[in-house]
Design goal:
The chain is 19% helix and 23% strand. It has 4 helices and 10 strands; from the N terminus they run βααβββααββββββ. It has helices at residues 19-22, 36-53, 95-98, 103-112, and strands at 6-11, 57-62, 79-81, 86-89, 117-120, 135-139, 142-146, 160-164, 172-174, 185-187. The strands form 4 sheets. It has a 3-stranded mixed beta sheet, with no helix packed on it. Strands 7-6-8 form a 3-stranded antiparallel beta sheet, with no helix packed on it. A two-stranded parallel ribbon has the order 1-2.
Length: 189
């Protein structure tokens, strides 16, 4: 199991319904948005306080009003961090989600954590390749539902496989390298 004692959290400025992601995200439901940004901010601040009270190091970066990024609270969809100092940037379907990759966020990370290597996969946006899809993943005989944004850490030599309902876009990251000839994978040494 992969765990961490460090978290990156983006403090929301305008959290709410995002019509650009609603086309492929069933969690996005258009409705009365009154009070939603304020409630999200309150819950965010309470969560940060709780995490810090349990001695978890939380790096908070304030979102900015412009560009309008209503989903900025979810950076795990566009960035990941790895034990060896590798930072990965991922392609995003919605144009306003792409704008979440703000210089201020990356600078805050660089000030606090040594980034040894950056893997930037955002060029796949130009080819309309994104990490999306739903289905199920079976790891060591136990099947779990899979949805966009999920991350799976599979221990070495553990039987695993996937079944998907639609044509998914999946990024497979392996450490150590197990098939360097497969160009659809990212290898983190």
């Amino acid at each position: 199991m992969q765990t961490t004692s460090h978290l990156l959290m983006i403090r929301p400025v305008s959290f709410g319904y995002n019509p650009q992601t609603a086309v492929n995200n069933s969690f996005q439901v258009k409705g009365d948005q009154s009070g939603v940004p304020e409630k999200a901010l309150q819950e965010f601040d309470e969560l940060v306080g709780t995490l810090r009270a349990h001695e978890i190091d939380v790096t908070v970066v304030d979102d900015s009003p412009e560009p309008h990024t209503p989903d900025a609270i979810f950076p795990n969809n566009w960035i990941s961090f790895h034990e060896n100092g590798t930072l990965c940037l991922y392609p995003m379907y919605a144009e306003n989600r792409r704008q979440e990759r703000k210089t201020s966020v990356l600078e805050s990370i660089a000030k606090k954590f040594p980034v040894q290597r950056k893997i930037d996969l955002t060029h796949y946006e130009n080819r309309n390749h994104f990490l999306e899809g739903t289905g199920s993943m079976t790891v060591d005989g136990v099947t779990h539902p899979v949805k966009k944004g999920d991350v799976w850490v599979i221990p070495a030599n553990t039987p695993h496989g996937g079944q998907f309902e639609d044509a998914p876009q999946v990024l497979f990251i392996s450490s150590p390298i197990d098939d360097p000839d497969d160009q659809d994978r990212v290898w983190i040494d």
